[in-house]
Amino acid sequence: MQKSELGTVRTLWRLVPFARRALGRISLGIIAAIAAHLVALSIPQFLQNLVNSLVDGGIDALLPAVGLILLLGVLEALFVLLRRWLVLTPGTFVEADMRNTLFAKLQDLPVAFHDRWPSGQLLSRAVADLGLIRRWLSFGIVLLIANFITLVVGLIILFTYNFYLGLIFTVASVPIWIVGFKFERKFGTIARLAQDQSGDLATRVEESVHGVRVLKSFGRGGFAADQFASQASELKTTEITKAKAIANIWLYLILIPEVALGLALFAGVWFAANDQMSVGTLVAFVATAMVLRWPTESLGFLLGMTLEAKTATTRFYEVLDEPDLIADPKSPKAIAEPKGLLEFHDVYFRYPDASVDSLDLINGVNLRLEPGQSVALIGLTGCGKSTLTALTTRLYEVSSGSITIDGVDIRELTRWDLRSQIAMAFEEATLFSSSVRDNVLLGSSEKSESDLKQAIEIAQAQFVYELPNGLDTAIGEEGLSLSGGQRQRLALARAVAANPRILVLDDPLSAVDVDTEAMVEEALRQVLTKTTALIVAHRPSTVMLADKVALMQDGKISAFGTHKELLASSAHYRHVITSLDEENKQREVNL
Amino acid sequence: MSLYGTNNEEKSDLNKEESRFIRQRSRKLLGSLLLPLRARLWLAVIMILFSTALRVAGPALIAVGIDWALPRAINNDLMPLWMVVGAYLLAAAVGAVTVYFFLTLTAKIAQAMLFDLRNRMFVHTQKLSVEFHERYTAGRVIARQTSDLESISELLSGGLSELVVGLTFMIFTAGALLVLDPISFLVLACALVPLLILTRWFQVNTNRGFRAQRVASATLIQNFVETMTGVRAVKAFRKEKDNERHFGGLVETYRKLNARLIQLFGIYDPGLILIGNATVAAVLLVGGFRVLEGTLGIGVLTAAILYARRFFDPMEQIAIFYNSYQSASSALEKISGVLQEEPSVPEPENPVVIHRAQGKVSFDSVHFQYATGDQVLKPFSLEIPAGQTIALVGTTGAGKSTLAKLISRFYDPTSGVVKLDDIDLRDITNSDLRREIVMVTQEAYLFTGSVAENIQLGKPGASMAEVEQAAKAVGAHDFILKLPNGYDTDVNKRGGRVSSGQRQLISFARAFLANPAVLILDEATSSLDIPSEAMVQKGLKTLLSGRTAVIIAHRLSTVAIADRVLVMEHGSIIEDGTPEQLVAAGGKFSRLYKAWRESLI
């Protein structure tokens, strides 16, 4: 993102790979646009003859001349039709293509990227920015080129009518270029600022809605509204500045051609009075100058659009240029006989934005999970347990050291392969807006009905059968809302249904009530006999599920053994797992 | 079928009465937005009339120049020429400057309206009850405040002023032609017939197309946001390829609808040019004969041609903005629906002022059911004396959270009264209520900003010392210091970097700082590890002294600090007493407690 700003042309040039398919038709469209303009420009020529013959009183010339003008008029409309037809559809394909590419890239980028970028910012790139680029490709660039050429040709015609008249008109029009250039610099910055601020405001709205319960329970709606208002007011100021820049360019775009025309009119009448020019030529001159008005005026608008397209392109490539730090290997290996042996060798990890003087969050973890073995990962809040689980599927990448499955470094597997070996359940259960069935079978390769039923049973998620449409009930954002515990159980069912070699569960039952938790654990036991499992746990009951316990402390595994062994040997383990302090224990005894 | 508020907002086949109802509602909203701006609005109207009149004067002055100043110039009388050119330049200059001020003024009006509307929406959605948010879903509330407001913004800042400029220009041009040469005006009037037919065809089709396109874009956006916010699960379960296919399908639908829409423009625009050119030719033909007869000046004919040609110039802009008008007005209709929703927990009209509550909470014959009729809490009465710590125990769906939400007035009871210090909650102002009663929920939502800012939410303006003290009290201080920037660490999107246990600690510190008389903890410690929970409970003991507390926890460790336990099942309180009493009584609690004891080490 720190790259030096590219120029407008070079930035827009980067659209070529996407626009390649459309370039042919766009070029033809430009030709059609020029043809339409030239036809429009030629009409005054015939008007000139007509007027001259009218002045001379020749009735014979009237009908053919009007007929010709009508014909040219029809021709102009046809060329415009052709231009539109040529240019419009390809633009939509480019837009769709870019949108799909952006989506794929975003899905491919590591989680660390998404931590940094609010979804509102990504959305404005995927929708508004790409729409802008499409409009620029099918209108902006076409009309910019066509109008410029028309302007040049038109000026030449004006010169041939009368050299001095043409000169006056041209010289008087020159300030437009200066104004346009100034506008280019000013507007680009302000347009980008407005886009960013509007994206930030959208993020603020999203948060206020998702966090509405917190704001309500603290009565901070007014406080949030004040913050929102000050942010909205910033956007308002920017938009007004932007509008002023536009109003300013309009001022000159209207004024300058009128002044040019007024001066030319003066000179023209004077020339006509001195018999240096016919009345017909004067009329034609005025008519031509009128035809040139739109190409002249529109240049500013098209320049503005070009700049916005440049901004949009820059923003698009901000994402696309992002290096994909967690990519598939060039020549991936495969695990011949998957057994489910998961090993951590000297694993270190720190978040890229961690302060320099802090220790690595994962500071040399060595751990070996035998095939079929289940290990509970225990440690204080924030000691890196969740991060360690995220490393196993390369949601984040180890800073140094390695993680292997059946002896193969996970970085040598394709991500697809790796993630089909390991299924995860997150504490924060993410459900997607689709049916219960689709949500549970998300990671399952066979999608069989029996897997589904079994997974639901193990996760004690039978409540889904009671939902309005049972397994086909739509859940998630636009569907039925479920409680935290219900969501967690579905997320667990999803991990189980994937039927993986290795199961990684990040505190999957924190929101589930005690009775249900006990039932889930009972059911989960069968699964764990044949699956390697790494389970982040806080509760003794969950620990009981596991064969072994790994205690995490200061970014390392400080103790490893059975629950009983650790209870006996590790004071820190007792501190972490033993509930309540002495005083409370006393009271419990009394109960 | 009621269309009040957000009911049936997706319904598209409205009958006359219904669409009148909705139009009236959104017109009323528009009126209320414009009311404070009416002086500026009138100024804008005057400006646009003035500047258009000046711009339309151009061709007429050219006519005067050719027919009046030219013959005199031939006779060496340059004065008329000077006058005409002077007038032309003056008209152009003043017209252009007025356009500048008009555009700036309308931008200010538009932005003031938008600002007003944005704030109203934000404040109103915050006022609406949790019940509304649950029913209407977050996605739709966000869409109303982002994409719908965006389409109104597009109309206001881009289109509306140009629409007005264009329409005025057309009317003035036609008027000028009528004065200058009525016969040419008649020719132009004939051209209005095909123009209106073409425009009508265009409007009907684009209107339909626009609706379909908006639905498609909403689906697209929703899918995109959901994928990005759930990207961890997407990756972990290898959904990328499926998602790409699905999203690709949505993109294609959107593209097709868009392309069809643009093609309509592709026919309309050349159609306009054709009509315009044919009109020019007709004016030329009719005018040419009269010039030959000597009844019409060349200059007037030139002006007539210019007027006839320029008349059609703004037409395409108008047609385009008619569309953004359509989408903006349907957006405004939906927004007006949300604004019509009344908070189901309204502010009292004659509030009872509370300076500092004792913290006594009572339920008098309270009964609660959802609007759908599902009974959640069976009729019951309950009194919680000030300062008592209550533990609510029971399985999921027993009604514990509902009871808590009644105390914090997220809902109002279906019948009966909930009171704080013997005052009906419905008689207490929101700000008093929220100062005295605070609820901490399991989700522990963190907002973009620093850790300190998130804690300060409990008491805006709290000093750093207070923030740290609160963090220390709940045992969050140590881990916060270990974060990259300590208290200034950005908690990132959805608290990405901070673990869920840490998030709960932060939101706990937030509650500590708020210092309420009644504190409700709804599963507020579920993600904490045991030492942190023990620490929080130690902090709780100091925090809860002299304070009423209702604690919901699936895990019974919380019971250790409770004075009294309520066991709930199927919407009723089935056991009520001190922990000791309940254990001795040998009921459900006693069983739960024994099971829990066994799970301990």
Short structural summary:
The complex is a heterodimer of chains A (591) and B (601). Helices cover 64% and strands 9% of the residues of chain A. Chain A has 591 residues and is an alpha/beta fold.
Please tell me the overall pLDDT of chain A. 83
DSSP helical segment count of chain B: 19
CATH class of the largest domain in chain B: Mainly Alpha
CATH homologous superfamily assignment of the largest domain in chain A: ABC transporter type 1, transmembrane domain
How far apart the termini of chain B lie comes to: 60 Å
CATH superfamily of the largest domain in chain B: ABC transporter type 1, transmembrane domain
Layout of SSEs?
The complex is a heterodimer of chains A (591) and B (601).
Chain A: H1 8-13, H2 16-55, H3 62-108, H4 111-116, H5 119-161, H6 163-173, H7 175-210, H8 212-217, H9 221-273, H10 279-320, E1 342-349, E2 362-369, E3 374-379, H11 385-392, E4 400-405, E5 408-409, H12 415-421, E6 422-425, H13 436-440, H14 449-458, H15 484-497, E7 502-506, H16 514-530, E8 532-536, H17 540-543, E9 548-553, E10 556-561, H18 563-569, H19 571-577, H20 582-590
Parallel strand pairs in A: 3-8, 3-9, 6-7, 7-8
Antiparallel strand pairs in A: 1-2, 1-4, 4-5, 9-10
Helix pairs in contact in A: 2-3, 2-5, 2-10, 3-5, 5-6, 5-7, 5-10, 6-9, 7-9, 7-10, 9-10, 14-15
Chain B: H1 16-34, H2 38-74, H3 79-127, H4 130-136, H5 138-180, H6 182-229, H7 231-236, H8 240-293, H9 298-311, H10 315-340, E1 361-369, E2 375-384, E3 389-393, H11 400-407, E4 415-420, E5 423-424, H12 430-436, E6 437-441, H13 451-456, H14 464-473, H15 477-482, H16 500-514, E7 518-522, H17 530-544, E8 548-552, E9 564-569, E10 572-577, H18 579-585, H19 588-599
Parallel strand pairs in B: 3-8, 3-9, 6-7, 7-8
Antiparallel strand pairs in B: 1-2, 1-4, 4-5, 9-10
